[in-house]
Amino acid sequence: MAMFDAHQFAGGGFMPTQQPDQGMGASGKGGRHNEQTLRAVTVRQMVTALDAAGPDQDLVIDGAELSNVTLVGKVVSAEESGGGINLAVSDSTGTVDVRAYVDGGDQQSMAQKLAEWQPGTYVRVYGHVRPFGGGRNVQSFAVRAVHDFNEVTYHCLQTIFQHIHLAKGSPAGGAAGAVKQEAGFGAFAAAGGWPQQQQFGAAAGAPAAAAPPGMEPCQAAVLKIISDPTAGEGGVHVNDVCSRLAPQGYTRQRVEAALYALQNEAHAFTTSDDSHWKGTA
Amino acid sequence: MNADAPTPRVGFAQLKNMIGRRVLFVGRVESMDGGVVRMAAPDGSKVSIQANSTFETPFAEVQGTVVDPQTIREESHVNFGDNFDMNTYNELLKLVNGPHSALFYQ
């Protein structure tokens, strides 16, 4: 279980922190470690979780309770209200109301924020999902204008990465929503856990072609071929992979399915075009 | 909070399936001729924008309605500056419109 030491995720922060006093500190519902996670999300993910949860229930995405979230979107409207600013932010998947408090709350700082968050401006929001007027909104800790628009790309990729990390590698992932987070997480680790971590571990001391244990045989065979260092930077054409695996009885359909599965798990990527493949190890 | 009216992030490949729909399209401005802005899509294909405003930076994100597989009618746009990685964005588009579309649009 050493691979799941909390420090590995210190940079991400979306995994629950394993606290030494967890047993004693877990009085009350939820457990406070959940308060320390930060999830990159889309509005659509939150709406889907909202539909699945009751009005007073915690939101759960990919089996993990949602508290602190970050999202990137475009300001649709911004208006002053009671010492703060109410923003509507659209991230292309949907629209969410964001309540932003303004330091000081005086007219000058208010006007400055309203000028900074004009409709059409991209903003990064950090906040907490709260029940609000029958629905939910995001109470923000910080809202800042985006100046480097690669952050838009980055946020979407981070959302996908965290989703895969929490949901995909886990055979218990489907059931995790119904159980406590530690339980789902423990089952995840017991079931073989995170193939990528294992692969990184293997890559450090062993030849790159070593496939993670438990990988489906066709995927392992495909990964071995496309990870061959003699193939060069251009990778291996899908036709070559097929012809080399035909003697083992793997159809083109199975090879292609294996390639896409490997791509989804970040074991493989396409190079000069969609037909040339290379292993990531 | 609602997800009733998404404006999907699309590249050139998706435009033909999105005619009449509102989308977000990021491209690099190649030329401006009256009301038509010619842009390069993240995959390098050419797209025409029926513009209603002036594009001030090399990269821009257009929100608008797809007219035909090569044309978008602008509703508004956001200037994306002069430093935007189109290759990474193109890879993101494949994920968003492919294996991970459930997180975003459907």
From TrEMBL, chain A:
GO CC list: chromosome, telomeric region; DNA replication factor A complex; site of double-strand break
Region named Disordered: 7-33
Keywords for this protein: DNA replication, DNA-binding, Nucleus
Keyword Nucleus belongs to the record: yes
One Pfam family it belongs to: RPA_C
Origin superkingdom: Eukaryota
Matches recorded under Gene3D superfamilies: Nucleic acid-binding proteins, Winged helix-like DNA-binding domain superfamily/Winged helix DNA-binding domain
Intracellular or extracellular location(s): Nucleus
Tagged with keyword DNA damage: no
GO molecular function, one term: single-stranded DNA binding
Domain OB residue range list: 69-136
Single GO biological process annotation from the record: double-strand break repair via homologous recombination
Residues annotated as domain Replication protein A C-terminal: 163-274
Family statement: Belongs to the replication factor A protein 2 family.
Identification of the protein by name: Replication factor A2
From TrEMBL, chain B:
Alphabetized CDD domains for the sequence: RPA3
GO cellular component, one term: nuclear lumen
Single GO MF descriptor: DNA binding
Keyword set, alphabetical order: Nucleus
Domain of life: Eukaryota
Localization: Nucleus
GO biological process annotation, one example: DNA replication
Coiled-coil segments on the chain, per record: none
Record's keyword annotation contains Cytoplasm: no
Pfam families: Rep_fac-A_3
InterPro entries registered for this protein in UniProt: NA-bd_OB-fold, Rfa2
Record family assignment: Belongs to the replication factor A protein 3 family.
Name of the protein described by the UniProt record: Replication factor A protein 3
